[in-house]
Write a structure and sequence with these properties.
Length: 290
Amino acid sequence: MPSSTAHVSIRTITGEIASDAEDLLAVEAPLEIVVVARPRGALPLASGARAPRRLGITMRTPGNDRELAIGLLFAEGIISRAADVVDIDERSGPSGDLVRVTLSEDVTVDLGRSERALAVANASCGVCGKASIDVASCAPPAPLARSVPRIAPHVVHGLAARLRGAQPVFGRTGGLHAAALFDASGALADLREDVGRHNAVDKLIGAALLAGRLPDPGAVLMVSGRAGFELVQKALRASIPVMVAVGAPSSLAAELAAAHGMTLVGFARDGRFNVYAGRERIAVPAETAS
């Protein structure tokens, strides 16, 4: 498997003094995703109906590529369950690494809608290639239960440190985003890293989907950066009721979370956090709430 880190020679300047050294960087490399599926409207036995079709190329940190591909297909609505996938094949392609996903015969794909408009998707790209945004279309498969999970403030306060402590590559490079799933007690269930924050979430959700851990009504998603619209959209697609971000949410992310009953927390660091939607899940004593 390709390495997620690379050694480079650098020159460090401290004051007026220069010194040469070695540094470790997070690798960013292209991954091509190919889907084998029947196009919507094609007959099951039509000639060439299930020929491989390129979905696009994404820039990512090598590792967990199968999960990244599955998480992306799930987030885009191309698949809705692990059983929709018949085979996942990793290989080298003309553009670099390649993951080929074969879908079940009964799964049809609207290829014109699903193909990304950009030939190369930037690792930090969220809604690039989408012609429009419909907040109503981002609803979770089933309404989120408003009463669960209930999370104590001290648990939220501790998530950022637990996230950072569980990032193996970030500790060596300082250059990766992370996404992690916790339970309401703050216990870490799983974590994925990537140079792209959207990729990290796709890897995490893809892993949970393949492992049969979704939906989980008690799941808490923690992300290392800000909470943008599409990260909230991905969490809703996976029916995750609580999302906590180290950074700020966008206005559209807060609107989307509120519209669908998700709890959205931002600026969760340094002993404080802000609740932008779904405050009923944060178990603050009644006498301290205003």
